[in-house]
Fold:
Amino acid sequence: MNQPLRIVIAGGGTAGWMAANLLAHRFATIPIDITLIESKDIGTIGVGEGSTPTLKRFFQTLDIAEHQWMPACHATYKVNIKFNGWSGDDNASYSHPFFSQLDVHSERSFYVNALTRRLGLDVETTPDRFFMGGYLAKKNLAPIPSHNFPFAIEYGYHFDSHKLSEFLKQHAKRLGVEHIEGDIASVGTSVSGAISHLTCKDGQVLKGDFFIDCTGFSSLLLQKTLNVPFTSFSNNLFNDSAVVLATPAIDHMPVETESSTMSNGWCWQIPLRNRTGNGYVYSQQYQDKDKAEYELRNKLNLLDSDVEARHLTMRVGQCEQHWVKNCLAVGLSQGFIEPLEATALHLVQITIEQFATYYAKGNYTEKYQQHFNSAMTERFERIRDYIVCHYKLNGRTDSQYWTDNRENMQLSESLLSLLDVWYRKGDIVQEIKRQDIGKHFSAASWHCLLAGYRVFPEIAQHQPASLEEQGDLFEENKLSTFFNRCSLNFEKQKTLFTSAV
Ligand SMILES: Cc1cc2nc3c(=O)[nH]c(=O)nc-3n(C[C@H](O)[C@H](O)[C@H](O)COP(=O)(O)OP(=O)(O)OC[C@H]3O[C@@H](n4cnc5c(N)ncnc54)[C@H](O)[C@@H]3O)c2cc1C
Structure:
């Protein structure tokens, strides 16, 4: 390459700045100019405050230590998502943990108990009791073990999204990314139909060889300019709106996101160091925005408070192609699966990493575009299925919303097949291998969901004598003793953060 490769990133939300950092890092050895343009007036979506463990790898790749970014973004650790009320009983909950090395010791027992329970025998199947995350969350312990603890622990984070964008902006600038403020007024194309330049309202023109569309739901480059069609997921993910409110920080500093059912959707609780993020995700078909805000305020005891609520609409689905000609969409511009499993930034990161790999492998051409697009489409669809399954299995009877979700038969072949195997008391591990979908959600995750929702037959009236004699298989395995002893190696998150100050 004689001339530097000119990459223009449109949009400075979390997606834009993650892309700027990762591309500057990955392409550091080639002549490259990366410019990011963002509008001061349009602003960012300002939500997206829970991650998966993939984000840990993001910071490791960039060689940014936790003590450098976490305090700056009011970040806390996250080991679980706790689902409250989804099975129909308001007091019932289960957690979906991030799986750590030591969980391989208990995974098998969990599968055995889940199968035993499916055969009608009364055994322990609450996921939290089989995995380290459940024990850490119960005691508000940070997932950072003492020095001699021999297992690596998986975890994600909660953080302030504005602060994270700001932190990543400063880091990208240090890596050589140029930052421009301006409102893109039009997008120019060449005779080949590729994007040639962006023109701003103030007359600035930005030329580039490759363009990354991070303009959020507006998808100014990929959808609006290159006319790439959008595939909606609204036939099986009904939610299209959210109302968001902040409350003070929780004193004991939990290490899990909570997701609690509401009359027509669900509400997240994300604990940060300085505040708690709350948001009610619902469908406007079933609930208008005023009622949604009232219900959220009521739940948070904020009916008499003048703290302002923010209302957002969401476009749930994905672009038919994520990379077209010389344009890649990243973040909300490429698609969004509603936030129940907090997978959006995970997808942002995977999109950039995979793109960088294929782009470099194809010598900075479109050679692997099709390959990349098929992989991304498949990834979105399989993550969608896992989230759809939450709604399909809900046990709530208090509104039409929940009934319609349960009765919805618009399910993919992949999901139907998984449910069929479970109901027939078959082997979910084998089914996931057969479908080759374990890289999206593992067999352990699927077991958590299906056992967490208690998708089980009635308990047999006569339990075999041998089982009664054995007592609870779970107790016999002494897993809880093992995990409780392990948890002695961890400190409370609050203590860890207070002592670090
Ligand atoms: C209700 C809700 C909850 C969510 N929760 C989670 C979660 O828990 N975990 C998670 O991982 N994700 C979550 N997400 C998704 C997450 O918020 C986004 O994936 C993430 O913030 C990235 O957004 P973005 O950068 O793509 O878009 P945005 O933040 O919208 O940024 C768009 C950027 O484009 C710029 N722009 C737009 N138009 C122009 C123009 N004409 N000229 C110049 N600049 C322009 C804007 O100025 C802005 O900088 C949630 C989303 C929603 C809606």
Summary: The chain has a mean pLDDT of 95. The pocket of flavin-adenine dinucleotide is lined by residues 10-16, 37-39, 42-45, 47-51, 161, 183-184, 214-216, 218, 220, 242, 279, 281, 312, 314, 331-333, 339, 342, 344-345 (CB under 6 Å).
